[in-house]
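Form P-L/3: holo structure prediction, ligand glutamic acid.
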Amino acid sequence: MAQTPRYRFAPSPTGYFHVGGARTALYNWILALQSNGVFVLRIEDTDDSRNNPQWTQGILDALAWLGIDNKDSHFEGPFFQSANAALHVEAAEKLFAQGAAYYCDLSSEDIQKRAKESGKQGYDGYSRDRGLGPGEGRVLRFRVPEGATIVQDQVRGSVEFDNSTIEDFVLLRGNGSPVFLLANVVDDVTQGITHVVRAEEHLPNAPKQQMIWRALGHEPPVWAHVPVLVNEQRKKLSKRRDKVAVEQYREEGILSVAMKNYLMTLGWAPIGDTEIVPFEKITAEFDLSSVNHSPAFFDIVKLHSFNADYIRAMPVDEFIRACEPWLVGAKAPWQAQDYDAKVFAEIAPLVQTRVQLLQDVPSMVDFLFCDLPTIDDAAFTKAFAPEWASATLIEIRDAFKTCEFTPDALKAVVEAVGEKHSLKLGKMQAPLRVAVTGRSVGPPLFEPIAMLGRDATLKRIDVALAKKV
Ligand code: GLU
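OUTPUT (holo model):
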Protein backbone atom coordinates (compact mmCIF):
# COMPACT_ATOMS: atom_id res chain seq x y z
CA MET A 1 0.00 0.00 0.00
CA ALA A 2 1.28 3.47 -0.82
CA GLN A 3 2.52 5.46 2.13
CA THR A 4 0.24 8.25 3.37
CA PRO A 5 1.92 11.56 2.55
CA ARG A 6 2.80 13.45 5.70
CA TYR A 7 3.45 17.17 5.38
CA ARG A 8 4.37 19.44 8.20
CA PHE A 9 4.51 23.05 9.17
CA ALA A 10 7.20 23.79 11.73
CA PRO A 11 7.16 27.43 12.85
CA SER A 12 9.35 28.84 15.59
CA PRO A 13 7.26 30.88 18.03
CA THR A 14 9.54 33.90 18.09
CA GLY A 15 7.25 36.70 16.93
CA TYR A 16 4.05 37.62 15.19
CA PHE A 17 2.89 35.13 12.59
CA HIS A 18 4.46 36.19 9.30
CA VAL A 19 2.47 36.25 6.04
CA GLY A 20 5.26 34.17 4.47
CA GLY A 21 4.68 31.54 7.17
CA ALA A 22 0.96 31.68 6.44
CA ARG A 23 1.63 30.95 2.78
CA THR A 24 3.91 28.01 3.66
CA ALA A 25 1.27 26.68 6.02
CA LEU A 26 -1.39 26.95 3.31
CA TYR A 27 0.81 25.12 0.82
CA ASN A 28 1.30 22.25 3.25
CA TRP A 29 -2.36 22.19 4.18
CA ILE A 30 -3.54 22.12 0.57
CA LEU A 31 -1.02 19.43 -0.35
CA ALA A 32 -2.15 17.31 2.59
CA LEU A 33 -5.81 17.73 1.59
CA GLN A 34 -5.10 16.97 -2.08
CA SER A 35 -3.31 13.75 -1.27
CA ASN A 36 -5.60 12.73 1.57
CA GLY A 37 -2.46 12.98 3.64
CA VAL A 38 -1.60 14.55 6.97
CA PHE A 39 -0.64 18.07 8.02
CA VAL A 40 1.53 17.95 11.12
CA LEU A 41 1.88 21.14 13.13
CA ARG A 42 5.13 21.20 15.06
CA ILE A 43 6.05 24.20 17.15
CA GLU A 44 9.84 24.50 17.14
CA ASP A 45 10.16 26.00 20.57
CA THR A 46 13.72 25.07 21.50
CA ASP A 47 15.21 28.57 21.42
CA ASP A 48 14.41 29.55 25.00
CA SER A 49 15.77 33.06 24.63
CA ARG A 50 13.31 33.94 21.86
CA ASN A 51 10.26 31.80 22.53
CA ASN A 52 7.15 33.06 24.16
CA PRO A 53 3.84 31.22 24.75
CA GLN A 54 2.05 34.28 23.38
CA TRP A 55 3.57 33.63 19.95
CA THR A 56 2.53 29.99 20.04
CA GLN A 57 -1.04 31.04 20.70
CA GLY A 58 -0.75 33.54 17.86
CA ILE A 59 0.25 30.75 15.47
CA LEU A 60 -2.64 28.55 16.56
CA ASP A 61 -5.12 31.41 16.23
CA ALA A 62 -3.80 32.49 12.83
CA LEU A 63 -3.94 28.94 11.46
CA ALA A 64 -7.50 28.55 12.70
CA TRP A 65 -8.37 31.89 11.08
CA LEU A 66 -6.93 30.62 7.79
CA GLY A 67 -9.14 27.55 8.02
CA ILE A 68 -6.32 25.17 8.89
CA ASP A 69 -8.56 23.42 11.27
CA ASN A 70 -7.08 21.45 14.14
CA LYS A 71 -10.28 19.41 14.35
CA ASP A 72 -10.02 18.24 10.75
CA SER A 73 -9.00 14.63 10.33
CA HIS A 74 -6.01 15.69 8.20
CA PHE A 75 -4.53 17.73 11.04
CA GLU A 76 -2.12 16.33 13.64
CA GLY A 77 -0.64 18.27 16.50
CA PRO A 78 0.40 20.66 17.75
CA PHE A 79 3.56 18.88 18.79
CA PHE A 80 6.25 20.77 20.65
CA GLN A 81 9.88 20.27 19.72
CA SER A 82 11.01 20.92 23.28
CA ALA A 83 9.22 17.72 24.34
CA ASN A 84 11.54 15.69 22.10
CA ALA A 85 14.87 16.89 23.49
CA ALA A 86 15.86 13.41 24.69
CA LEU A 87 15.32 11.99 21.18
CA HIS A 88 17.55 14.66 19.67
CA VAL A 89 20.41 13.81 22.03
CA GLU A 90 19.86 10.08 21.50
CA ALA A 91 20.15 10.55 17.72
CA ALA A 92 23.35 12.56 18.19
CA GLU A 93 24.82 9.78 20.33
CA LYS A 94 23.90 7.26 17.67
CA LEU A 95 25.67 9.32 15.00
CA PHE A 96 28.74 9.53 17.25
CA ALA A 97 28.70 5.81 18.02
CA GLN A 98 28.61 4.90 14.33
CA GLY A 99 31.41 7.34 13.45
CA ALA A 100 29.20 9.73 11.48
CA ALA A 101 29.99 12.46 13.99
CA TYR A 102 32.92 13.37 16.23
CA TYR A 103 33.66 15.65 19.16
CA CYS A 104 35.83 18.72 18.89
CA ASP A 105 37.20 20.95 21.64
CA LEU A 106 38.34 23.93 19.59
CA SER A 107 36.98 27.28 20.70
CA SER A 108 35.67 29.64 18.07
CA GLU A 109 38.84 31.74 18.54
CA ASP A 110 40.94 28.64 17.82
CA ILE A 111 38.92 27.97 14.68
CA GLN A 112 39.30 31.55 13.50
CA LYS A 113 43.02 31.45 14.15
CA ARG A 114 43.45 28.26 12.14
CA ALA A 115 41.35 29.66 9.31
CA LYS A 116 43.48 32.79 9.22
CA GLU A 117 46.70 30.79 9.16
CA SER A 118 45.52 28.47 6.39
CA GLY A 119 43.70 31.15 4.40
CA LYS A 120 40.66 28.85 4.21
CA GLN A 121 37.40 29.96 5.75
CA GLY A 122 35.46 27.98 8.34
CA TYR A 123 36.21 24.85 10.31
CA ASP A 124 38.89 22.61 8.79
CA GLY A 125 38.03 19.24 10.31
CA TYR A 126 40.85 19.49 12.85
CA SER A 127 39.37 16.95 15.28
CA ARG A 128 38.11 14.42 12.72
CA ASP A 129 40.66 11.81 13.73
CA ARG A 130 41.58 12.88 17.22
CA GLY A 131 39.28 10.32 18.80
CA LEU A 132 37.83 12.71 21.39
CA GLY A 133 34.89 11.63 23.51
CA PRO A 134 32.17 13.87 24.88
CA GLY A 135 33.15 16.48 27.44
CA GLU A 136 32.29 19.91 28.79
CA GLY A 137 32.65 22.53 26.07
CA ARG A 138 33.08 19.97 23.30
CA VAL A 139 30.80 20.24 20.30
CA LEU A 140 29.66 17.27 18.27
CA ARG A 141 30.27 17.74 14.55
CA PHE A 142 28.90 15.84 11.59
CA ARG A 143 31.58 14.19 9.45
CA VAL A 144 30.65 15.48 5.98
CA PRO A 145 31.59 12.85 3.41
CA GLU A 146 33.39 13.62 0.17
CA GLY A 147 31.42 13.96 -3.04
CA ALA A 148 28.25 15.81 -3.80
CA THR A 149 24.77 15.97 -2.34
CA ILE A 150 21.81 16.25 -4.66
CA VAL A 151 18.65 17.70 -3.23
CA GLN A 152 15.57 16.84 -5.30
CA ASP A 153 13.38 19.84 -4.86
CA GLN A 154 9.83 20.03 -6.18
CA VAL A 155 10.07 23.76 -6.81
CA ARG A 156 13.70 24.12 -7.87
CA GLY A 157 14.35 20.78 -9.50
CA SER A 158 17.56 18.96 -8.78
CA VAL A 159 20.02 21.11 -6.80
CA GLU A 160 23.57 19.86 -6.47
CA PHE A 161 25.85 20.85 -3.59
CA ASP A 162 29.56 20.12 -3.66
CA ASN A 163 30.32 18.61 -0.23
CA SER A 164 33.71 20.30 -0.16
CA THR A 165 31.84 23.59 0.35
CA ILE A 166 30.09 22.25 3.44
CA GLU A 167 32.14 22.20 6.63
CA ASP A 168 31.72 19.56 9.31
CA PHE A 169 28.73 21.22 10.92
CA VAL A 170 27.73 21.22 14.59
CA LEU A 171 25.01 18.87 15.87
CA LEU A 172 25.38 19.40 19.63
CA ARG A 173 26.64 22.60 21.18
CA GLY A 174 29.36 22.70 23.84
CA ASN A 175 26.68 22.54 26.54
CA GLY A 176 25.18 19.41 24.97
CA SER A 177 22.11 21.08 23.50
CA PRO A 178 21.07 20.05 19.96
CA VAL A 179 21.09 22.62 17.17
CA PHE A 180 18.18 23.33 14.84
CA LEU A 181 19.53 21.21 11.96
CA LEU A 182 19.53 18.08 14.07
CA ALA A 183 16.36 18.64 16.10
CA ASN A 184 14.43 19.47 12.95
CA VAL A 185 15.51 16.26 11.18
CA VAL A 186 15.00 14.03 14.20
CA ASP A 187 11.48 15.35 14.62
CA ASP A 188 10.76 14.89 10.93
CA VAL A 189 12.05 11.31 11.09
CA THR A 190 10.13 10.55 14.29
CA GLN A 191 6.94 12.06 12.96
CA GLY A 192 7.21 10.11 9.71
CA ILE A 193 7.36 13.23 7.55
CA THR A 194 7.50 12.46 3.83
CA HIS A 195 7.44 16.01 2.40
CA VAL A 196 9.27 19.08 3.66
CA VAL A 197 7.77 22.20 2.10
CA ARG A 198 9.28 25.33 3.60
CA ALA A 199 10.83 28.73 2.95
CA GLU A 200 13.68 29.09 0.51
CA GLU A 201 15.97 30.42 3.22
CA HIS A 202 16.29 26.81 4.41
CA LEU A 203 17.61 25.51 1.09
CA PRO A 204 21.26 25.70 2.28
CA ASN A 205 20.24 23.50 5.23
CA ALA A 206 18.77 20.83 3.00
CA PRO A 207 22.03 19.08 1.94
CA LYS A 208 23.20 18.94 5.56
CA GLN A 209 19.85 17.66 6.72
CA GLN A 210 19.73 15.13 3.93
CA MET A 211 23.09 13.79 5.16
CA ILE A 212 21.67 13.48 8.67
CA TRP A 213 18.59 11.65 7.36
CA ARG A 214 20.78 9.14 5.55
CA ALA A 215 23.20 8.73 8.44
CA LEU A 216 20.24 7.95 10.69
CA GLY A 217 19.26 5.22 8.24
CA HIS A 218 16.32 6.87 6.49
CA GLU A 219 15.55 7.99 2.98
CA PRO A 220 15.25 11.80 2.94
CA PRO A 221 11.85 13.39 2.37
CA VAL A 222 10.70 15.11 -0.80
CA TRP A 223 11.93 18.68 -0.50
CA ALA A 224 10.32 21.88 -1.71
CA HIS A 225 11.76 25.30 -0.97
CA VAL A 226 9.33 28.06 -1.81
CA PRO A 227 10.53 31.50 -2.91
CA VAL A 228 10.56 34.36 -0.44
CA LEU A 229 8.09 37.22 -0.36
CA VAL A 230 9.48 40.67 -1.11
CA ASN A 231 8.27 44.24 -0.66
CA GLU A 232 7.92 47.01 -3.24
CA GLN A 233 11.66 47.58 -3.33
CA ARG A 234 12.11 43.86 -4.00
CA LYS A 235 13.65 43.42 -0.56
CA LYS A 236 12.78 40.36 1.47
CA LEU A 237 9.81 41.12 3.73
CA SER A 238 11.15 41.88 7.16
CA LYS A 239 9.32 42.34 10.40
CA ARG A 240 11.32 45.45 11.19
CA ARG A 241 10.57 47.18 7.90
CA ASP A 242 7.33 45.78 6.56
CA LYS A 243 3.87 44.95 7.73
CA VAL A 244 4.16 41.18 7.92
CA ALA A 245 1.96 40.06 10.81
CA VAL A 246 -1.12 38.08 9.82
CA GLU A 247 -2.66 39.26 13.11
CA GLN A 248 -2.33 42.86 11.99
CA TYR A 249 -4.14 42.26 8.70
CA ARG A 250 -6.90 40.45 10.53
CA GLU A 251 -7.22 43.37 12.95
CA GLU A 252 -7.60 45.77 10.04
CA GLY A 253 -10.44 43.76 8.63
CA ILE A 254 -8.89 41.68 5.90
CA LEU A 255 -11.21 38.68 5.47
CA SER A 256 -9.61 35.30 5.85
CA VAL A 257 -10.96 34.15 2.44
CA ALA A 258 -9.32 37.16 0.80
CA MET A 259 -6.02 36.61 2.59
CA LYS A 260 -5.98 32.91 1.68
CA ASN A 261 -6.81 33.55 -1.94
CA TYR A 262 -4.28 36.38 -2.21
CA LEU A 263 -1.45 34.42 -0.55
CA MET A 264 -2.04 31.58 -2.99
CA THR A 265 -1.56 33.88 -5.98
CA LEU A 266 1.97 34.79 -4.91
CA GLY A 267 4.15 32.88 -7.31
CA TRP A 268 1.31 30.67 -8.50
CA ALA A 269 -1.94 31.21 -10.40
CA PRO A 270 -5.14 29.22 -10.66
CA ILE A 271 -6.19 28.11 -14.14
CA GLY A 272 -8.27 30.67 -16.03
CA ASP A 273 -8.23 34.41 -16.37
CA THR A 274 -9.22 35.42 -12.86
CA GLU A 275 -7.16 35.10 -9.73
CA ILE A 276 -10.13 35.53 -7.43
CA VAL A 277 -11.39 32.00 -7.11
CA PRO A 278 -12.87 29.75 -4.43
CA PHE A 279 -10.48 27.92 -2.17
CA GLU A 280 -11.85 24.60 -3.46
CA LYS A 281 -10.61 25.47 -6.94
CA ILE A 282 -7.20 26.37 -5.54
CA THR A 283 -7.11 23.14 -3.57
CA ALA A 284 -7.94 21.16 -6.69
CA GLU A 285 -5.42 22.90 -8.95
CA PHE A 286 -2.43 23.83 -6.81
CA ASP A 287 0.77 22.18 -7.86
CA LEU A 288 4.24 22.79 -6.42
CA SER A 289 5.99 22.23 -9.71
CA SER A 290 4.23 25.29 -11.18
CA VAL A 291 5.30 27.59 -8.34
CA ASN A 292 7.50 30.34 -9.73
CA HIS A 293 11.19 30.27 -8.73
CA SER A 294 11.56 34.01 -8.35
CA PRO A 295 10.62 36.02 -5.28
CA ALA A 296 6.98 37.06 -5.09
CA PHE A 297 5.91 40.64 -4.45
CA PHE A 298 3.58 40.92 -1.48
CA ASP A 299 1.46 43.77 -2.79
CA ILE A 300 -0.72 45.28 -0.07
CA VAL A 301 -2.67 47.35 -2.60
CA LYS A 302 -3.61 44.16 -4.43
CA LEU A 303 -4.50 42.42 -1.17
CA HIS A 304 -6.85 45.31 -0.37
CA SER A 305 -8.46 45.03 -3.76
CA PHE A 306 -8.98 41.27 -3.30
CA ASN A 307 -10.55 42.10 0.05
CA ALA A 308 -12.86 44.72 -1.47
CA ASP A 309 -14.00 42.14 -4.03
CA TYR A 310 -14.73 39.56 -1.34
CA ILE A 311 -16.55 42.15 0.76
CA ARG A 312 -18.74 43.16 -2.20
CA ALA A 313 -19.58 39.53 -2.88
CA MET A 314 -20.81 38.81 0.65
CA PRO A 315 -24.52 38.49 1.39
CA VAL A 316 -25.37 41.69 3.23
CA ASP A 317 -26.24 39.87 6.47
CA GLU A 318 -22.86 38.28 6.50
CA PHE A 319 -21.22 41.65 5.84
CA ILE A 320 -23.10 43.16 8.77
CA ARG A 321 -21.97 40.32 11.04
CA ALA A 322 -18.38 40.65 9.83
CA CYS A 323 -18.42 44.38 10.67
CA GLU A 324 -19.69 43.85 14.20
CA PRO A 325 -16.30 43.79 15.96
CA TRP A 326 -15.69 47.30 14.62
CA LEU A 327 -19.19 48.58 15.39
CA VAL A 328 -19.92 47.32 18.88
CA GLY A 329 -17.48 46.80 21.68
CA ALA A 330 -14.04 48.13 22.35
CA LYS A 331 -13.10 49.04 18.78
CA ALA A 332 -16.20 51.15 18.11
CA PRO A 333 -15.44 54.87 17.94
CA TRP A 334 -18.80 55.93 19.42
CA GLN A 335 -20.66 55.49 22.69
CA ALA A 336 -22.69 52.29 22.71
CA GLN A 337 -25.95 54.23 23.23
CA ASP A 338 -25.37 56.31 20.08
CA TYR A 339 -25.07 53.30 17.79
CA ASP A 340 -28.17 51.95 16.13
CA ALA A 341 -27.85 48.55 14.47
CA LYS A 342 -31.02 49.14 12.41
CA VAL A 343 -29.59 52.31 10.90
CA PHE A 344 -26.37 50.50 10.08
CA ALA A 345 -28.29 47.64 8.47
CA GLU A 346 -30.00 50.18 6.22
CA ILE A 347 -26.80 51.77 5.01
CA ALA A 348 -24.72 48.57 4.98
CA PRO A 349 -25.36 47.70 1.29
CA LEU A 350 -23.95 51.09 0.27
CA VAL A 351 -20.92 50.82 2.55
CA GLN A 352 -20.25 47.34 1.27
CA THR A 353 -19.64 48.63 -2.24
CA ARG A 354 -17.09 51.21 -1.13
CA VAL A 355 -14.97 49.68 1.60
CA GLN A 356 -11.66 47.84 1.30
CA LEU A 357 -10.98 47.08 4.97
CA LEU A 358 -13.59 46.40 7.62
CA GLN A 359 -11.77 48.74 9.98
CA ASP A 360 -12.72 51.62 7.66
CA VAL A 361 -16.43 50.98 8.08
CA PRO A 362 -16.97 53.10 11.23
CA SER A 363 -15.48 56.21 9.64
CA MET A 364 -17.91 55.82 6.74
CA VAL A 365 -20.97 55.76 8.94
CA ASP A 366 -20.05 57.59 12.15
CA PHE A 367 -21.94 60.70 11.00
CA LEU A 368 -25.15 58.72 11.48
CA PHE A 369 -24.42 58.06 15.13
CA CYS A 370 -23.79 61.53 16.48
CA ASP A 371 -25.59 64.82 16.88
CA LEU A 372 -23.08 66.79 14.79
CA PRO A 373 -20.12 65.28 12.95
CA THR A 374 -16.60 66.41 13.69
CA ILE A 375 -15.63 68.25 10.56
CA ASP A 376 -12.27 67.32 9.13
CA ASP A 377 -10.43 70.63 8.66
CA ALA A 378 -8.51 69.65 5.53
CA ALA A 379 -11.66 68.26 3.87
CA PHE A 380 -13.56 71.40 4.83
CA THR A 381 -10.91 73.78 3.51
CA LYS A 382 -10.74 71.96 0.22
CA ALA A 383 -14.48 71.62 -0.30
CA PHE A 384 -15.28 75.20 0.61
CA ALA A 385 -12.34 76.80 -1.23
CA PRO A 386 -14.15 77.39 -4.58
CA GLU A 387 -16.07 80.66 -4.50
CA TRP A 388 -19.27 78.91 -5.58
CA ALA A 389 -19.20 76.44 -2.67
CA SER A 390 -21.05 78.34 0.05
CA ALA A 391 -23.46 80.05 -2.34
CA THR A 392 -24.58 76.80 -3.94
CA LEU A 393 -24.83 75.07 -0.57
CA ILE A 394 -27.18 77.85 0.56
CA GLU A 395 -29.34 77.19 -2.50
CA ILE A 396 -29.32 73.48 -1.76
CA ARG A 397 -30.24 74.09 1.85
CA ASP A 398 -33.13 76.30 0.87
CA ALA A 399 -34.48 73.70 -1.52
CA PHE A 400 -34.00 70.94 1.08
CA LYS A 401 -36.37 72.88 3.38
CA THR A 402 -39.34 72.04 1.21
CA CYS A 403 -38.46 69.20 -1.17
CA GLU A 404 -39.57 65.66 -0.68
CA PHE A 405 -36.96 64.07 1.59
CA THR A 406 -36.15 60.97 -0.44
CA PRO A 407 -32.78 60.04 -1.99
CA ASP A 408 -34.05 60.71 -5.53
CA ALA A 409 -35.62 64.04 -4.71
CA LEU A 410 -32.53 65.17 -2.79
CA LYS A 411 -30.30 64.19 -5.66
CA ALA A 412 -32.53 66.03 -8.12
CA VAL A 413 -32.20 69.20 -6.01
CA VAL A 414 -28.41 69.04 -6.05
CA GLU A 415 -28.35 68.28 -9.76
CA ALA A 416 -30.62 71.21 -10.52
CA VAL A 417 -28.44 73.63 -8.56
CA GLY A 418 -25.44 72.18 -10.36
CA GLU A 419 -27.00 72.70 -13.77
CA LYS A 420 -27.76 76.28 -12.93
CA HIS A 421 -24.09 76.89 -12.16
CA SER A 422 -22.75 74.51 -14.86
CA LEU A 423 -21.23 72.21 -12.24
CA LYS A 424 -21.30 68.42 -12.29
CA LEU A 425 -22.93 66.46 -9.46
CA GLY A 426 -19.58 65.16 -8.18
CA LYS A 427 -18.30 68.69 -7.62
CA MET A 428 -21.59 70.02 -6.38
CA GLN A 429 -21.95 67.48 -3.66
CA ALA A 430 -18.47 67.95 -2.17
CA PRO A 431 -19.38 70.80 0.24
CA LEU A 432 -22.65 69.07 1.08
CA ARG A 433 -20.82 65.84 1.88
CA VAL A 434 -18.40 67.62 4.20
CA ALA A 435 -21.24 69.48 5.90
CA VAL A 436 -23.30 66.35 6.49
CA THR A 437 -20.63 63.74 7.15
CA GLY A 438 -17.59 65.80 8.19
CA ARG A 439 -15.47 64.05 5.58
CA SER A 440 -14.62 64.14 1.90
CA VAL A 441 -15.15 60.42 1.25
CA GLY A 442 -17.91 58.09 2.27
CA PRO A 443 -20.82 56.06 0.99
CA PRO A 444 -23.20 57.36 -1.71
CA LEU A 445 -24.63 60.50 -0.15
CA PHE A 446 -28.35 60.82 -0.70
CA GLU A 447 -29.57 57.69 1.03
CA PRO A 448 -27.87 58.59 4.33
CA ILE A 449 -29.13 62.19 4.07
CA ALA A 450 -32.66 60.86 3.72
CA MET A 451 -32.02 58.63 6.73
CA LEU A 452 -30.75 61.55 8.81
CA GLY A 453 -33.92 63.50 8.05
CA ARG A 454 -34.61 67.09 7.24
CA ASP A 455 -33.97 68.78 10.59
CA ALA A 456 -30.64 67.14 11.27
CA THR A 457 -29.47 67.77 7.71
CA LEU A 458 -30.39 71.45 7.73
CA LYS A 459 -28.72 71.89 11.09
CA ARG A 460 -25.50 70.37 9.78
CA ILE A 461 -25.52 72.56 6.68
CA ASP A 462 -25.98 75.66 8.81
CA VAL A 463 -23.15 74.69 11.15
CA ALA A 464 -20.84 74.17 8.17
CA LEU A 465 -21.86 77.44 6.54
CA ALA A 466 -21.11 79.27 9.77
CA LYS A 467 -17.66 77.74 10.02
CA LYS A 468 -14.76 79.88 8.79
CA VAL A 469 -12.50 78.53 6.08
N1 GLU B 1 11.42 26.35 12.55
C1 GLU B 1 11.89 26.69 11.24
C2 GLU B 1 11.48 28.09 10.89
O1 GLU B 1 10.52 28.58 11.45
C3 GLU B 1 11.27 25.83 10.19
C4 GLU B 1 12.17 24.89 9.62
C5 GLU B 1 11.56 23.95 8.64
O2 GLU B 1 10.43 24.19 8.17
O3 GLU B 1 12.22 22.97 8.38
O4 GLU B 1 12.09 28.69 10.05
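COMMENT: The chain has a mean pLDDT of 96.
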